[in-house]
Amino acid sequence: MATLRLPLHDGTLAPYTLRTATPWPVPAVKPTFNRVAYSAAHVVADPLARVDPFVDAALDWDATLAYRRHLFALGLGVAEAMDTAQRGMGLDWATSLALIERSVDAASDIPGALIACGAGTDHLDAAQARTIDDVIAAYEHQCAAVERAGGRVILMASRALARVAQSADDYVRVYGTILAQIREPVILHWLGDMFDPALAGYWGHRDLDRATDVCLDVIRGNAGKIDGIKVSLLDDAREIALRGRLPPGVRMYTGDDFNFAALIGGDESGHSDALLGIFDAIAPAASAALAALATGDRARFDAILAPTVPLSRRIFEAPTRFYKTGIVLMAWLNGHQAHFTMVGGQQGARSLVHLADVFRLADAAGLLADPDRAAARMRVLTALHGL
Domain range for residue 108? Predict the structure, then answer.
C-alpha cells in the first residue's frame, strides 16, 4: 500500500501507510431508508475562470451537478445552497439561485430525488438591512425565487435579522409573516454561532434556554407550515430536549456533526432525521449505514458510522465555520473534482496539519475510495507546502 510522509502536531514528519480500500459500491437500486436524510452539498469552483476568487464566485457546473447526482444515486437528499456550499463565505445569492435552479432541474430527472433549497437574506448588505421590514422583504424575495424554481424552502438563519432585531418579538413577527406565505412546509434552520459568529443571540437571546422557548413559540404557532427544524448547535442533549418538545408531525433534522450517529440511530426517547454537512464527505458510508438501519440492523449502522465520527469532529473542529475546507479536500481526494480549489480561496482556511489529520481519519474510516490516488494527491498538497 502507498506510504507518504505527513506532518504531526509537534511539527515533525512521520511516514503513514494507507490501509486497504473499503468498497462502497453505488447501489444498483436506490436504497430505502427509515430516516429522512439530506446531505448539504458543497460546490466545485472553476479554477480557470477569469475572476478574483476573493470577490466573485465561479463554479464548475458540470462537476458541481455531477456530485449532486452521486448523492441522489446513494439515496441521499440534497440540501442545496446551504452553508456547506459556502453560502455567506464566497457563494453570493445570484450564483446560489443559479445553483438552485440547475439542481432542481437535475433532480427532476431522477425518480424519488429529494431536494430542498436555502432561502435567506444574504443579498442584503449592512446598509440595506436597517429594519425588520427590510428583512421580511428579503426573505420574501428569496423564498419566491426558490418556489418559482420548483424547490422546497429551507428557511435559513439570517445575519440581517440577528443584526437588526430588537427583541424576540421581531423573530416571531418575521417568521410568522414568511411562513404564512409559503406554499409547502419548510425546514427551519437554526445555525449556532460556532458555525457563524454573526448569528450569536439568534431568536433574540444569547441564553440558549430562552432562545429555545422563542423558537418553539414560532414552531407551535406555525406548525402546519413547518416540515421540521435543522438544529446545528453541536449539543446533543439540547437537541434531544428540543426534539421532545416539538409538535406532532414536526421533524427534528440533526445538524450536529459531532453526535449525528447516535442522534440518527435514536434511543427510547426517539430519533432525529438528518440534514448534515458531514454527509457530503461520508456519503457512501452514510448511505450504507442508513440502509442497514432500515432493515433493523442497528449493529451494522453503528459499526459503519463509528469511525466516521472522529473524522467529522476533526473536520468541524473550531473554528467550525471553516469545515468546508475538509469537505472539499475529501471530494478532491476521492476524485469527485480535479483540483483542491474553493470559492473565496477557502482551501487555505485550514492548516496542513489539520488536513493531514483529516486524511488519516478518512483512511481509518475506509473513506478513501482509491488509496493510491488519494496518496498521490496528498503528496501534491504537501509538496505545495514545502515538504
Answer: 30-324
